[in-house]
């Protein structure tokens, strides 16, 4: 049985994914230990299925029950622990709302990474390690100039969580 961290992209604002009904629907689908964290599309659950199979089971449920058709990303607890351990900005953890981890569907190619580097200006910093982009915004995400360019420039589907959420999901996964 593997514990999976599921991230729904683009939840918030006009796109809602109510956590209690979502947890019920996923439990009824046979997933175990389903836990949700805040209304921004975060779920921890257990399954003996592969990541691909978990996503194939979740996608029709959220489409039918909640009219949710945006991307869903998944990481095992081992991948999540590596995401945390590989943080290239250890001094930024004291400002957890200014440090973000983007989980990407796949690792972007070098041309796309160089294109994003050419667009980076100001105090913001980012590094990519595998399929995770770490983004430190010392002036806050609302003032971050690179933020709206990341996905489009890299050409990969991604979803970001601030460091508070990253750590909370790890804690939920440990008790799932």
Automatic annotation (TrEMBL):
Annotated source species: Phyllobacterium ifriqiyense
Protein name: Uncharacterized protein (DUF1697 family)
UniProt-listed Gene3D superfamilies: SP0830-like domains
Superkingdom in the source lineage: Bacteria
UniProt-listed SUPFAM superfamilies: SP0830-like
InterPro entries, alphabetized: DUF1697 (IPR012545)
């Amino acid at each position: 049985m593997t514990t999976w961290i599921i991230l729904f992209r683009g939840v918030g604002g006009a796109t809602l994914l109510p956590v209690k009904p979502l947890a019920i629907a996923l439990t009824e689908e046979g997933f175990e230990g389903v836990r949700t964290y805040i209304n921004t599309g975060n779920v921890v659950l257990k399954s003996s299925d592969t990541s691909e199979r978990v996503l194939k089971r979740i996608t029709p449920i959220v489409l039918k029950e909640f009219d949710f058709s945006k991307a869903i990303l998944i990481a095992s607890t081992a991948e999540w622990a590596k995401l945390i351990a590989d943080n290239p900005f250890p001094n930024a953890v004291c400002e957890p709302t200014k440090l973000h981890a983007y989980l990407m569907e796949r690792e972007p190619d070098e041309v796309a990474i160089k294109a994003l580097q050419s667009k980076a200006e100001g105090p913001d910093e980012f590094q990519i390690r595998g399929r995770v982009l770490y983004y430190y915004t010392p002036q806050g995400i609302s003032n971050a100039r690179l933020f709206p360019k990341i996905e489009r420039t890299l050409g990969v589907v991604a979803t970001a969580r601030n460091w508070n959420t990253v750590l909370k999901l790890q804690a939920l996964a440990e008790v799932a």
